[in-house]
Design a protein that fits this description.
The protein is mainly α. The chain has helices spanning 19-30, 49-58, 68-79. 2% of the residues are buried.
Amino acid sequence: MLQPGFDDEKQPGKKFFCPSSTLIEGVLAVYPQLKKITVERVPFPRPRQAVIAAAAKANQGRSRVSGKEPLAAYLAETYGIDGAH
């Protein structure tokens, strides 16, 4: 997840949060069965080396889930929580 309160050099003087990260954080907070999922927050600037390293190490040969809708669907299917509507 992106750390909230980040700067974007394209819009100086403003602070931001990622709506997609915030949505998923909310889903994780609402469903007790998701408490076992470890969340790491990474800084906004790219490249996000921590994400690249984690994906390469943990998911070699696996497909990745990307985006709030596919991630919410994955959580629903995998952990039996309600689906997004």
